[in-house]
Design a protein that fits this description.
Distance between the termini: 48 Å
Helix content: 25-40%
Structural class: alpha+beta
Strand order of the largest sheet: 4-5-6-9-8-7
Number of strands: 10
Length: 239
Amino acid sequence: MAKWEEIYEDIKEEILSGKMAPGSLFPSNLDLLQKYKARSTLTIQQAVNQLIKEGLVISDGKRGKHSKRTVRIIPTRSVNYRRGGFSKEFGQIATKNVLELRIIDQKKDIPKVLQDEITTPALFYHTEQLLNGQLVAVSKAYIPSRIPTQELLKLMSQANASLYGSLEYLGFKPFACEENLICDFASKEERQALRLPKNSNIPIVRLTRKTYDEKKQLVEICPLIYRADVYEFAYQFNF
């Protein structure tokens, strides 16, 4: 194992164990050079670069003595039992920010991969999902035209509105769903949406949920992106 790898592994363990306090100022290259008795700052920087790449160290992107690096605050991992809406899954620690709520009239405004299943006018419901105030997921729900979109829009415009509760009120109670998950590194757009550190490689989960009513007819398609480092997905189902 190369010297920089030994240093990287040692610092990584200090961060994950909490020995380096989350949010604390990360040591300078000179401090690390003296601590690990490395031959050059290049060796130190290689180790630090890997930590930044993995999102364990956050850099402000500046160089020299004015640069600032901090130990990443690692979110608490939550078990997601996938048993309904976000609020139902997590209760009081869950909150949402509604980014957009509108009716889509034109097919071109729906992602191509969904156009065969989502008819217009469709309701578009775009939210950020937070646990204990920290952004952990972003969802984009599309509700097809078989649902009374104008009535649904009015219901969803009310404070603390629930999508699934509103669907049930209109007679389209969610009954079953299917989900497809892909774990990957975030694209630039996904990093921005989840506000991930610019230079990190924190993985994400792309999840597409299709929800059906008791007649097995589609009532929602919802692509979501999750921070993979804050979730443990757990499913229950009947054979």
